[in-house]
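Model it.
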Amino acid sequence: MKTVLCFGDSNTWGHRPDGSGRYALDERWPGVMEAVLGEGFRVLVEGLGGRTTVHDDPIDGAHLNGLNYLTPCLASQKPVDLVVIMLGTNDLKHRFSVLADDIARAAGRLVERVQGSDAGPQGAAPAVLLVAPAPILEVGAVGTRFTGGRIKSQLFSTTYAAVADELGCHFLDAGNHIVSSQIDGIHLDLDAHLELGKVIAKHVREILI
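Modeled.
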């Protein structure tokens, strides 16, 4: 049995772009991925709305700092064969005022935390798949909190790839396969969840088999 941990934000949690709650378990990309992978795989989902890479959110709370939560998460879930990390969208909020390169490097700190852990089989470190989030749009009320974020997010494909190469982890650019919803510009429509789940499942199978 191979165990995959999905560590992300509201798009891993399954937030609907229209704000009407959460997609069903089998509609969210981790659920789609698990169904595609089939027997022999177990998928653990750690998605939290508003989660950042390394930042204590001064408005929404310090508990959203992904780096701080990752260590106890790994300890409670181990052994884990692979950790899929898709974070950085919330770092685009104007309140943080960070560059695309800084966001990618912050995501890299999460990768390093996993690589330096004993959370894998036989006390080794799990493999890591770093996923660059799809570029955002700046639309509606949500978009005002992400002013300037659209252009930064378009650089994720290159900045995240560079970090993954530097750290020697696996990489996937979500923006090559899906787009953010036109409704709020941040979250994923149902078809995007379906496609992302299929694409990540393919990568997971290649990594673990």
